[in-house]
Amino acid sequence: xxxxxxxxxxxxxxxxxxxxxxxxxxxxxxxxxxxxxxxxxxxxxxxxxxxxxxxxxxxxxxxxxxxxxxxxxxxxxxxxxxxxxxxxxxxxxxxxxxxxxxxxxxxxxxxxxxxxxxxxxxxxxxxxxxxxxxxxxxxxxxxxxxxxxxxxxxxxxxxxxxxxxxxxxxxxxxxxxxxxxxxxxxxxxxxxxxxxxxxxxxxxxxxxxxxxxxxxxxxxxxxxxxxxxxxxxxxxxxxxxxxxxxxxxxxxxxxxxxxxxxxxxxxxxxxxxxxxxxxxxxxxxxxxxxxxxxxxxxxxxxxxxxxxxxxxxxxxxxxxxxxxxxxxxxxxxxxxxxxxxxxxx
Length: 345
Description:
- It is a single chain.
- By secondary structure, the chain is an alpha/beta fold.
- Helix content is about 40%, strand content about 15%.
- It contains eleven helices and nine strands.
- It has helices at about 35-45, 60-65, 90-105, 135-140, 145-155, 160-175, 190-195, 195-220, 255-265, 290-305, 320-330; strands at about 50-55, 70, 80-85, 105-115, 230, 245-250, 275-280, 310, 335-340.
- Helix 7 crosses helix 8.
- The radius of gyration is 21 Å and the shape is globular.
- The two termini are about 15 Å apart.
- The mean pLDDT is about 90.
């Protein structure tokens, strides 16, 4: 079965999208029946909270149709899978997407994924570099310096000419010297920032922009609703008063490793913060190996201080694993939030 890419599984409210340049495309399997609305009705019948797993800027369909609204790296390359959140049309799309979901469905929360810039290799088709780019170099190849980012960061005081010069010289060295790197070639973003105020200022501007974007979605798109915002990232102090939940990831980890990850994530959160801290657990691809493995992992999440679990994901989980989850779910777990990811845009 080949799933459609970059489509939505709810029926958009036309009046909200009337003046939007970017619009969601309804999945073929949802054209006759609004399955998201059906899920909402069934969830309410069984007193189950409904959370919308919602993808923002990762959209190849819209990116290919509107390349001028995608991320652009220092060489002028466009990333077709990655809409740039600084572009006004993209921000409008993200706001209306969340507004449509929040006012038309009885949502407990919107789980936000990719509401910001994406990386080089995540992912349009079959990206290969053959040079052996380091994680830093891949990150630099994905940094967006499109006209919108250049104008906004420049207005905020970032020397964009210097920034682009540093990005290009660092990457040119990697391409010219591969497979080796010269002595002193930066190996991490922290190292590069220590030698370049422009890089440090640019990354600071990016963080501030994302905080303002998420805050505006919470205050504008969710206004008048009881819908919460959950992030798929670890605790960020700047967003503690804005969003209602953060996450940590323990994909393919043992119960001991899972508990350690949860403890580290919990320790970063002030004691007086009362939101949701989910641990994301993978179901499928051979992990976990048994019902007892899964039971131990779930207990490790509770022991580690998280108060929720997101299981990734129903469509990729073998039926036997779902049965394990059903059996374990019948036992009492100390925390109430259990999220089984199903379909996403």
